[in-house]
From TrEMBL:
Its EC number is 2.1.1.77. It comes from the Bacteria. This is Protein-L-isoaspartate O-methyltransferase. PROSITE patterns: PCMT (PS01279). Belongs to the methyltransferase superfamily. L-isoaspartyl/D-aspartyl protein methyltransferase family. It comes from Hymenobacter defluvii. Gene3D superfamilies: Vaccinia Virus protein VP39. GO terms for molecular function: protein-L-isoaspartate (D-aspartate) O-methyltransferase activity. Catalyzes the methyl esterification of L-isoaspartyl residues in peptides and proteins that result from spontaneous decomposition of normal L-aspartyl and L-asparaginyl residues. It plays a role in the repair and/or degradation of damaged proteins. It catalyses: [protein]-L-isoaspartate + S-adenosyl-L-methionine = [protein]-L-isoaspartate alpha-methyl ester + S-adenosyl-L-homocysteine. HAMAP family: PIMT. It is an enzyme of class 2 (transferase). The gene is pcm. GO terms for biological process: methylation.
């Protein structure tokens, strides 16, 4: 794994400045992104792309998310140090590592077995203490619920009801919802056992959320 050099840290500072210019305002989120060596999620031949603000293929039909998208979703989530966070769609593990800068209690589930094994090894090498699982993320992790925050990193046709049930009262779910071409970013806050408040934000394009409560895989 390529060490984290002074040059890499400078590239992350420049990336954070770019994201700030694009509208990211939460300095804790920007600090979290500056702390995570994104180049370590890339094969050596592609590391020149690591600190560009774009998504990049990681195999298995998946991508490492664009830094702006990671920052945008994380900012909406409003993570506190005491929060238990569930991430749906571990992917490369990059978003997971950003969340770990904000709270030590991160649970992440990945649908694809190949990606899960690859990312589990990578995060172990990086000494990132996430709780990683392989399975149907659209159903959440009921055995470990409730969660203060839930972040979905894939586009869903609807808001999965199992995820709403696993939110603590006062907790928030951030999820892109729409069709295969574009999704609207939503934040859903659980006000009480039966009451949820929904907010709509910008439009994005994510890979599909596979599973019984998403797009059937």
């Amino acid at each position: 794994m390529d060490p984290d050099s002074y040059r890499h840290r400078g590239q992350r500072r420049a990336l954070a400045a770019e994201l700030r210019h694009k509208g990211i305002r939460d300095e804790q989120v920007l600090t979290a992104l500056m702390a995570v060596p994104r180049h370590q999620f890339f094969d050596p031949a592609f590391q020149a792309h690591a600190y560009q603000d774009k998504a990049f293929p990681i195999g298995e039909g998946q991508t490492i998310s664009q830094p702006y998208t990671v920052a945008y979703q994380t900012e909406l989530l409003r993570v506190r140090p005491t929060d238990r966070v569930l991430e749906i769609g571990t992917g490369s593990g990059y978003q997971c590592c950003v969340l770990l800068q904000l709270t030590s209690q991160v649970f992440s589930i990945e649908y694809n077995q190949v990606l899960f094994e690859r990312t589990r090894r990578r995060l172990a090498t990086m000494h990132q203490p996430a709780h990683l699982f392989c399975g149907d993320g659209s159903l959440g992790l009921p055995a470990h619920a409730p969660f203060d925050k839930i972040l979905v990193t894939a586009g869903s046709p609807t808001i999965p009801r199992p995820l709403l049930r696993q939110l603590r009262v006062g907790g928030a779910l951030v999820i892109p919802v729409g069709d295969a071409q574009s999704q609207r970013m939503l934040r859903v806050v659980r006000e009480s056992e039966e009451e949820f408040v929904r907010e709509e934000f910008e439009t994005f394009r994510f890979v599909p959320l596979l599973g019984r409560a998403g797009w059937e895989g």
